[in-house]
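Q: Predict the assembly, please.
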Amino acid sequence: MKTKRKSNKIVRCLPFYVMALPGIAYLICNNFMPLYGMLLAFKKLDVRKGIFGSEWVGLKNFEFLFSSNTAFKIIRNTIGYNLVFLIVGTAIAVALAILLNEVRLKGFKKFYQSMLLIPYLISWVLASYLAYAFLAQDVGLINSILNFFGLPDVAWYTSKQYWPVILFIVYIWKNVGYMLIIYYSSIVSISADYFEAATIDGATKWQQIRFITLPLIKSTVVTMTILMLGRIANSDFGLFYQIPRNSGALYDTTQTIDVYVYNALMNNNDFGMSAAAAVFQSVVGFIFIMAANGVVRKISKRDALF
Amino acid sequence: MKRKIVSLMLVSAMVFGLTACSGGGDSEGGNSGGGGEGEEPYNIVMQVPTWGQEYSGLADVEAAINAIIEPEINATVTLEPIAAWDIPNTSTLQITSGEKLDLLCIESMGSNMDSISNYVNVNGLTELNDIYDEYGKDIQSCLGNLIDIGYMGETLYAVPANYYAGGGYCFAAITSELEALGFSFDENQIYTLEDVEEVLAAYQESKGSGYYAIAGFADGPLVTNLVPTDDLGDPAIGSLMNGGLDNTTVVNRFATDEYREAYERIRGWNQAGYINPDVISITDTWPTLLASGQYLGAFMYVQSNGLEGIPQNEKTVGQDLTVIRFFPDYATTTKAAYALWAIPVTSENPEKVMEFLNILYQDRELSENVSWLLSAGIEGESYEIVETLDDGRIIIDYPEGLDAATVPYTGSGPIYGDALSAPKYVPVDAEMFDEIVAYNDTSIEYSKAFGYTFDSSEYSNQISAINNVIETYGAQLGFGMVDVDTVLPQFISELEAAGINDVIAANQEQLDAWLAAQE
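A: Predicted assembly structure:
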């Protein structure tokens, strides 16, 4: 009886599996087949013997991430920035999505949305020059304004204390347009009936947002958050490398794992070490994703990813 | 291991073939290599470094080379253009994946941009000792002791192009500005930094704010151009002070008195307004900066003290430059390594490749000179001859209406074979050309550690950490952005925490062994 139902289910789902086939093939080719490269993280590459034949070195390739006293700093920066981006970034994106939804004139709505999205489409290199136009010490916009009010210049590219704020602003400016698309689309899909009913009952705008919009997009927010947690040990290389123009004086507050690894490997071209760094980031991401999903499942099972 | 055995067998077969050949008194013009009639010519895939441009005339150059070498050594070349900055990563991937590659260009550019150790660390290079002795006769006579920089320990891994073994430090200033200030300098004399300082002060005083006496750009903190050291190959941790001319003690250069003094001097310059406050984030090169008219000159290291480089840069600046030298020209392993040619382990016929490499170092007529074809392209298409010297060397210019960017082909630098005698572009004249060719023998002092390269493979963890510390502090101190008394001790203590003293001790040990073996 049971097996029959099961086979029925497979037959019923067969068209969906067929539809998923190209995606699965892509995943296998692109995401699973190269996984054997993780072996490199535990080996000393010898091109004469190939990846499989190279000598095992245990965890030696990981040492460079942890042996120095920069290790704590770069891990703190990576995870710290990501948490802030995750929490505050999501809040701003949701707020903007709600505001955008309230814009009544169609033309304006399109205009605002495009304006918010444009930075996302700009390359980081270009963005770094835009930031430079603001922050250059000699001719930069901000220093010109400071001078206008009789304040002294600030050497932005050598003053690390300002950079957490600068990086946050640049991150939001660049990414919020993209993040809000997802939230905006799930707000749009909320049936207008709810709002009409609420208006008739005399609910204020704020009450509508609080008791209708937010609860209905909750699962989208949770899903997006869990997905972002998976990349908590990865950082946006463009943001942390290009925007501070790789200025050494700022490393205390701008250097993340990716930037450190990039700088280290530009010097010694070591494949084992870069593989080790990537494995470390994946493992941390995996742990975070499992933990976050576990917590969500405990609180509200239907919002969990799996 | 299997590959090693196979190559050993190939070598022995080749040797047998040779003896059989000479025994038979064959008349085939002494062309070695066992490539008898009817045998397929061996195809040599050779990297041709570029600065990102594409050559429309590359196929013609390739055909011209093949027409010369196929009858001679029964081999053909395939020229594979590759951007110089892509070489380190792309080549390692090519070797790992077994893609065909026979001649690899390690383009260090005198500054560790790439290095032999990058490839030796993954065991990617063929050991050349035997085939160099066997097939590299002309290379040996051309290079002399310059070949030492291709060694790591006892093993020869790469053959350098014959180019300047070193150079000197100078301040290159715009001549008309110097004249306006009432200064004149003799380019052959050695001045002191105090002499230079006077010019900087005078310039700043006459021009005022918005102008800067010193053009600097982010890739090179000023301090490296003020204190001559021998950094003992890649990764430049542990140095001999004074260019290694008079001592063999490996030290942490950042902790020396010379560096401290230089840091303080630069700090003074910075506070006096000689240095653009945005220097750390400026990415333009110095000729571009000088062309803007806001600067007097730049401190720099130049190969051969600018015999070739300065005239080329004068074109970019648009004005004549005066070179003010403040240290005699000297040679170190790092500075001599401009471009080296290596044979990856994946090459199927290293002997043939070495034979080809040998041809690049031979003295040849224009009509059959392979290295000139690679350096300047085909006569009449990529260049016109301006003057032919007695011994056949040529001075050339771009054809009417063309320049370096628009000719069908031009080599991306002095990297092929005997690059010192390769064609030179005007404004080089006959006298300068002779000076260039004789430079390595006459105008230069050699570091006591010339030819030694530190093998750092056991210390890669410490080196990553040390380099990170250098990146953090190097530019701030090196451009005088911060107070020396507070930041320098912090810098040194972080370097020590990252393990610099262990690396230096290992470096000293290897150097002592190397010096003992030299005697």
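The domain at 39-303 of chain A is CATH 1.10.3720.10 (MetI-like fold). The CA atoms of residues 47 and 236 of chain A lie 31 Å apart.
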